Amino acid sequence: MSVRMPWLASVSLLALSLPAAAAAEEERTPSVAELVITAAPYPLSLDTITTNVDILTTRDLSLVPPAGLGDLISGMPGLRSTAYGPGASRPVIRGLAGPRVLLLQNGVGMVDASSLSPDHAVPSEAGQTSRIEILRGPSTLAYGGSGIGGVVNVLDDRVPSRRPDGRVEGRGAVSWSSVDNGRAASGAAMVDAGPLVLAFDGSIRRSDDYATPVRPVSDRLAAEEGLVRSADKTLRNVSLEADAWGLGASLVGGDGGFLGLSVKRTDTGYGLPFKQVVSDSEPELIRLHMKQTRWDLRGETPVHDGWIEKVRLAVGRADYEHAEIKIEEGKAGTRFLSDGTEGRVELVMRGSPGRQGAFGLQALTRNLEAIGEEAFIPGVEINEMGVFTLQRFEFGKFGLDAGLRIDARELRADLDGRETSTPGVEAGLDWSKTPDTRSFTNVSASAGAFWRPSDPLFLALTLSLSGRAPTEFELFADGPHEGTGTWEVGDPTLSSEEALSLEATLRWTGDSTRVQAHAWAARYDGFIEERPTGEIYDDLPVFNFRQTDADFVGFEVEATQTLLTRAEGRLEASLSGDVVRGDTDQGPPPRIPAFGVTGELSWESETLDAAVEIRHVGDQTRTAPFELETDGYTAINASLAWRPLAGTPVTVSLRGRNLSDAEIREHASYLKDIAPSPGRSVSLGLAFTF
Questions:
Q1: From CA 104, how far away is CA 294, in angstroms rounded?
Q2: What is the pTM of this model?
């Protein structure tokens, strides 16, 4: 589940070459001239980005097993997954997760509640996605301090920005996996209908409980708590049903402008893992149900005169519900409801020799409500407003990037009649006397310099300041949280979290050798984290949100060497790796992943792609006081992709995951000691375009 597929080992260096207006293009030729849509409103190619960016295209997504967003991208340098079962997996970027990793849908927020708890599913299915861009570090400034760790932008063609090549253009895929009897099917199409371009897409994903290489409960947890583990080597109660569909329509002009509207419906049901131990009592089984209806309005228009070249608009409106159902009772114990709208306007300046720039405005309004016996947060209304500018200057071999953003955030909680729990009283809280409104203003800025001393070499150094306002959970939580198995107590006096970061980039792009390396460091003032008080209340450990200072450092590298080039194909070897280390005033922060190293040997040709990958992740012994250590692992993966006839739109794929049947426990996961990743698996897939 947490092991990526072989061809993703160096995807940022082997990204496809396609213009931003044709993100669904299926060419496979490696090129670092790929345009990065998310980094800035104006065109930026992958070889001139001053920080680390990865891209997954339609082709990549059609060849990987369907999975949650975190599991889908996990294993690329600096990227891991929260691995909260097949139904809920969020990205972990450079050791950070949750509200510090901003998830976008076509450039605006998901408008959901998935960032507030690791058991909340992300309303996004790979089968409906045409492209994913992952940004780390200072390149996230355009989207505000909530992306202080990174940004993942999920792009689709549901609002068409171009006309199809013919009358109808589309794609489809079906797949099956052995370890969980996983079945998936997806399809998408665009139709030229006179003045309109219509778009349709849908996906279905099903999986059962999956086989594990070992007993699900770890040796360490069993010894720590004196548990007698079940001998079953199947992770129970993690079956998944995910359905999604969407449709949209656009008016597409001949000058590159468009305006369109779309709707998407996502419906996902999945179970939560539990401690599979020998016990006199039956475990309480929880099943979660997430559904979202989302409307998107998107448009772009060129401006033929003046200093503005084009104007872009993106607005997303969503209604989201997450219900936690106790299977034995057959009813929802707690429901999280979120509805809101987020919009973004970008004014792209008319480019001139050596200069590009843009200005933008972004706004959000969202309401969150928790209902039920374990509703540990009051209803909260959130309003945000942000303005930003990004500028790039080039002077021959030298260049400068600069950005500035100001964000205002207001949270208004419904505290009328709210009782303070015993742990809350012990933390000094009295909700009857707590102000119901908190307001924050944050300034984010970045400045970077880059130098191209020769054609193959690119060097950059970027300094950035980012500010993140506390979330509603961090401010107002007080109660039992089923997703983390803790009693959480917020702090309504928290201030904004600020990070000062520095990143150095080296990129070498030769005829047969490609290398990309990033060294970075970040110092946090007011780092918000949960720490145990040592108390137990209602059979749950009590955790309080606190602020400390923190330091993070890390390194990421990707290298690819062409070993053999023939008319019929190319043989390449690649190596990638990452490491991150964190320290706070209270010791190591929790769930920081260990180092990872991946080696791959691949063959690419018109009719056959093949790859073998070995991935090693080290032991994690630097743990927070309430964590257990995690053993490392070595996993072997392999893949074949066969196109029966040269140029055919049909690809048949065979993939092997964790062929070494290794015990894989991701330290970044809350569930690592009760839910290992799946064991050895073989999957079959069929992808086609028309």
A1: 13
A2: 0.92
